[in-house]
Amino acid sequence: MRSFRRAAVCAVGAAVAVVVLASAASAHVVVTPSSAPAGSWQELTFETPNEQDNATTVKLTVAFPDNPAIPSVSVRPVPGWTAQVAHKKLSQPIKTDDGEVSEYVSEVTWTAEPGQGIAAGQYQNFDVSAGPLPETPTTLAFKALQTYSNGDVVRWIEQSAPGQPEPENPAPTLQVTAASATPSTMPAAAESPAAAAAAAAPSGGSSSSSSSDSTAVALGVAGVVVAAAALALGGVAFARTRRQRG
Fold first, then answer.
1. pTM of the predicted structure, to 2 decimals
2. Which end of the chain, N or C, is less surrounded by CB atoms within 10 Å?
3. What fold does the segment set 35-208 form as a domain?
4. In a structure prediction context, what are the per-residue pLDDT tens digits for the chain, which is 246 residues long?
């Protein structure tokens, strides 16, 4: 019986450890999709989880890359939040289908209204329609600052190095891939970035999950497998003990 109890305790401990690791793996600001074709317009979602038990997330500032730059962004309204888009001058104008653009989006800041915010155990999606993306394949980093009601600021600004583990506070990144053979156009249901964003279904805490969620699910399944194996071993040990006593 003691052997069975020890095995059961080990199983529970293993399962808890895997679940904790799964939560840690998914608890950072990410952008979806993780890749998009060069020269296209994209709806980007910044999924922001609350990591603290005693504070709410009250502000998210996302810095957009400046080289290469994204000239235009439309923001989807989020109930209980206000959004502000900042621009900077380009050293060289960008040619788009609508003509030359002399400014680019430098950052977007979402601020919670009084009494609002992302509570413990919750997350919020912040959506923008952005474009056109750079014409050549590259990696875009969207460095983010997450501010809590207790004054803490988490800086999601670290970039991964090839062959190295993911940093502790990774910046959301988007891989710009080679354009497809079919010319990239704006969404057919919209005539402008703002209309494209408005035509999409509303998003919030229940929007599509990111690649980090897939990692969390995989780790959770692994935890269940480990727990089941430990319980099986415990049962074998218990049966063996009964036979020896008999």
1. 0.65
2. C
3. Immunoglobulin-like (2.60.40)
4. 555 455 544 444 544 443 333 343 457 899 999 999 999 999 999 999 999 999 999 999 999 999 899 999 999 999 999 999 999 998 777 777 666 778 999 999 999 999 999 999 999 999 999 999 999 999 999 999 999 999 999 999 998 887 888 889 999 999 999 987 554 444 443 444 444 444 444 444 434 344 445 555 555 555 555 555 555 555 545 555 555 554
| C-alpha span between 143 and 97 (Å, rounded) | 28
**Quick one: 8 exposed, middle or buried, by C-beta within 10 A (0-12, 13-18, 19+)?**
middle
DSSP 4-17: HHHHHHHHHHHHHH
